[in-house]
Amino acid sequence: MSEAATGRCACGAVSYEARGPLRAVWFCHCESCRRQTGHHVAATSVRVEDLAVAGGANLAEWQATPHAVRRFCRICGSHLFWQGVGGDTVSIMAGSLDLPTGIRADRHIYVGEKGDYYDIADGLPQSTQR
Q1: By CB count within 10 A, which of 24, 39, 73, 104 is most buried?
Q2: Which residues, 6+ apart, have CB-to-CB distance to 3 below 8 Å?
Q3: Model's pTM, two decimal places?
Q4: What is the mean pLDDT of the chain?
Q5: What's the pLDDT tens digit per position in 50-86?
Q6: Strand spans (E) along 31-78
C-alpha cells in the first residue's frame, strides 16, 4: 500500500495514520486475542516509526502477556493496537481502519486455540503458530 492509511476508535478520541506499507491481514485465533476481543482478531501491521497516533492521552495500555502489549481507547474501549515487547512493528486492528483499506487477508495463526463454535473454511493457509 503506497498511500497513508488512516483509522480510529469507535468514539473518535484516538485516531492514527500509518504512513508505511501495511502487511496483509492475519487472523489470530489465540486464547489471549479471543478473550480480549470476544472473537478472533483480524490485524495488519506497520513499522513503529510509520505509525502516528493522535489523541494518545486517551490510549490505554495493557500488558496482555509477558511478550505483548495491547492498546485501546480508554473512553470507548476499542481495541486498536498490539505490539510485541521490544518489537519494531505494531499490529493494527483491521476493523479500525478507514475504508477502503486496500489490503487483503492471507492467513490464520494459532488455529489450535480457536473457538469450538466456528470453522475456518476460507481456504487461507492455517498455522498453529505465527
Answers
A1: 73
A2: 102
A3: 0.94
A4: 96
A5: 999 999 999 999 997 899 999 999 999 999 999 999 9
A6: 41-47, 51-54, 59-65, 68-73
